[in-house]
Specification:
Blueprint lengths: L8 H7 L8 H27 L1 H8 L3 H10 L4 H11 L5 H15 L1 H5 L3 H15 L2 H10 L8 H29 L1 H22 L24 H6 L1 H22 L1 H7 L5 H31 L4 H22 L6 H13 L4 H10 L7 H12 L2 H15 L3 H26 L2 H7 L7 E2 L4 E2 L1
Antiparallel strand pairs: 1-2
């Protein structure tokens, strides 16, 4: 079990003789590095969408071909996250994140050598392999520096790095693409990824809450491990995956098609598009920095995780799904842009919370592997949504009709996913069923379990 934060220093040292002493400054330095890691991660993901129109014009690509290139990012994304998750207990987080960032830099190079469909696909596939485990493994690395009851804000900051990545990168990358050509954006991202990897190698270390190696001195019993079938098929894990699935569908559309939609359907210029996307990211960031700490405060007051974090992620996806269904048929640019912001910005809340809820029903020694599986399953929409959207646009009577159909399909997926999360996530109840919590008063019912 995780060491309690109230334990006296002597107990802490006895419990973790092989771990580094607690160091708040180091914990927040690692947090800052991981936030930067996520900033670069989402800049890498966004660059193709931001450069979609000039790339399609220069290479004479159809919407279906561009959709295929965008979806190729996710060809091995989920499999990579799954495989790396199972090695997370054997390889240090420092090494894993270092290798990922190096591969991000390498992935930008093929298209700089030859600009063609094969090199675009090759670069996106390699980038997907390297980024597949990024969110789950960086969250796993972050959790090694904070006890369970203090993970809400760090988790929100980690996912907030995604919002910051788009907030910052949209105008910067658009400026590079517009003034220096779209290849310049790829070159800059390669350099930035390499620099981050070098700094991380000097500063990144595994924290004292690394419970993949609990010392036997405190508890001679073997480390508790449960069958993965039980960990993956309980309601909390299934509901968390569903919420992530709905959120990922919207995010995949945002990265692949939202810039092109804003330019071709709403007639916005490149810099205006960048401003809109930055505004959506700012909304996501504000929600992340307010909702997650609020969830921690509710838990501190005794509110169950089902309502404090489970319902919140489901509701956020449902609200975004409603906005997604409405905005294609709304008149007036101001109202439409507001609904677009809700549709693509609100789902960010679900991402950190689905890790928080899953972590409550998984032994710490198996957390990295389960995070990898959850991330692999929850991000499958990235393989489907961009290509399907491109096909719908090409096959519809008008591009506008194709976009509208794609957004309605997204809304249906999101509403179903959000409702599933609301009804199935019950962390305390599932943790007791798995034997991870003692029988005690049920916070949901107020009676002895």
């Amino acid at each position: 079990m995780a060491p309690q934060p109230s334990a006296p220093p002597a107990d802490r040292s006895a419990r973790r003789p092989a771990a580094r002493p607690l160091d708040r400054r180091r914990a927040w330095l690692v947090t800052a590095m991981i936030v930067t890691f996520m900033v670069i991660n989402f800049a890498d993901k966004s660059v193709l969408g931001l450069a979609a129109v000039p790339i399609m014009d220069e290479l004479h690509l159809s919407n279906s071909t561009y959709g295929l290139i965008s979806s190729s990012f996710y060809l091995l994304f989920s499999l990579s996250g799954l495989v790396v998750g199972f090695f997370s207990s054997r390889i240090s987080s420092r090494t894993m994140l270092f290798v990922m960032a190096l591969l991000w830099a390498v992935a930008q190079l093929p298209v700089l050598a030859v600009a063609a469909v094969p090199t675009l696909i090759a670069g996106r596939v390699l980038l997907g392999v390297a980024e597949g485990p990024a969110a789950s493994m960086s969250m796993h690395a972050l959790y090694k520096w904070f006890p369970p009851e203090r993970r809400g804000l760090p988790s929100a900051l980690q996912i907030g790095g995604a919002a910051i990545g788009t907030l910052v990168s949209a105008p910067l990358l658009t400026w590079l693409i517009t003034d220096f050509g779209w290849r310049s954006a790829y070159a800059v991202l390669a350099v930035v990824s390499l620099l981050w990897a070098l700094v991380w190698w000097r500063t990144g270390h595994d924290g004292p809450y690394d419970e993949t190696r609990p010392p036997p001195a405190v508890d001679p019993r073997p480390v508790r491990r449960l069958p993965y079938r039980r960990l993956l098929l309980n309601g909390t894990t299934v509901g968390s995956i569903a919420g992530a699935f709905g959120a990922a569908w919207a995010l995949a559309l945002a990265h692949a098609w939202l810039p092109a939609y804003l330019r071709t359907q709403l007639g916005l210029g490149p810099q205006t598009v960048a401003t809109v996307i930055s505004g959506i990211s700012a909304l996501s960031l504000v929600l992340l920095l307010t909702v997650s700490p609020l969830m921690d405060a509710l838990k501190a007051r005794g509110v169950s995780s089902r309502w404090s974090s489970g319902a919140a992620q489901g509701v956020s996806v449902c609200v975004a799904g409603c906005a997604m269904a409405v905005f294609p048929f709304t008149d007036g640019d101001a109202v439409r842009l507001l609904l677009i912001g809700v549709a693509f910005g609100t789902v960010a809340v679900a991402i950190p919370l689905h890790y928080v809820t899953v972590a409550e029903v998984v032994p710490p020694t198996q957390r990295g592997a389960v995070f990898g599986i959850v991330a692999a399953t929850g991000t499958l929409p990235g393989l489907i949504a961009p290509f399907v959207t491109g096909h719908l646009i090409d096959s519809a009577d008008t591009a506008s009709a194709g976009y509208a159909t794609a957004f309605l399909i997204a809304a249906a997926v999101m509403l179903l996913a959000g409702a599933s999360a609301i009804t199935t996530i019950r962390p305390e109840q599932d943790a007791r069923r798995l034997g991870l919590l003692p029988l005690a008063t049920d916070p949901e019912k107020g009676v002895s379990a």
